[in-house]
């Protein structure tokens, strides 16, 4: 999840995919050709991984790490872009599951949009959580 992305940097960033995948993804520099990221920068709404073109084979590689099915969601409110991706090993997400995750993500997007309106301790806790979730053990 990347919340409130300015240029290419999110204000809050959460990664919870398997550590082995995150390490491979980072070391191989897959971000620049990741179809999920590209889709989110060019579109809003929902797109299942199975509906994406994957010329670099990134989604096929993700499947080797247990992430066989997934979808992305991108939203813009005002001038603030947030994007998220969700994956699972066993089956496609149902429409109801996607709707529930989108609703929850929209809530996160709305509640974190104006950092100045949040208590400073809340912003600090969100940033701390962003590091802990993304880099467990740090």
Give a summary of the structure in a few sentences.
With 138 residues, the chain is an alpha+beta fold. It has 5 helices and 5 strands; from the N terminus they run E-E-H-H-E-H-E-E-H-H. The chain has helices at residues 19-27, 35-42, 58-64, 95-111, 120-134; strands at residues 2-6, 9-13, 45-48, 69-77, 80-88.
Helix and strand arrangement:
Elements: E1 2-6, E2 9-13, H1 19-27, H2 35-42, E3 45-48, H3 58-64, E4 69-77, E5 80-88, H4 95-111, H5 120-134
Antiparallel strand pairs: 1-2, 1-5, 3-4, 4-5
Main features:
138 residues, alpha+beta, 5-stranded antiparallel β-sheet, 5 helices, 41% helix, globular
Describe the structure.
It is globular, with a radius of gyration of 15 Å. The chain contains five helices and five strands. Strand 1 and strand 2 (9-13) form a beta hairpin. Strands 2-1-5-4-3 form a five-stranded antiparallel beta sheet, sandwiched between helices. It has 138 residues and is α+β, with helices and mostly antiparallel strands. 41% of the residues lie in helices and 23% in strands.
């Amino acid at each position: 999840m990347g919340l409130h992305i300015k240029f290419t940097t999110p204000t809050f960033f959460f990664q919870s995919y398997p550590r082995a995948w995150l390490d491979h993804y980072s070391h191989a520099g897959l971000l620049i050709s990741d179809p999920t990221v590209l889709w989110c920068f060019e579109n809003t709404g929902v797109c299942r991984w199975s509906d994406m073109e994957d010329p670099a084979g990134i989604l096929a590689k993700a499947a080797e790490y247990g992430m066989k099915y997934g979808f992305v969601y991108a939203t813009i409110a005002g001038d603030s872009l947030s994007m998220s991706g969700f994956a699972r090993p066993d089956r496609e997400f149902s429409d109801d599951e996607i709707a529930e995750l989108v609703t929850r993500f929209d809530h996160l997007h709305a509640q974190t949009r104006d950092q100045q309106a949040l208590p400073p301790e809340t912003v600090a806790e969100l940033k701390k959580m962003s590091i802990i979730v993304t880099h467990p053990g740090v």
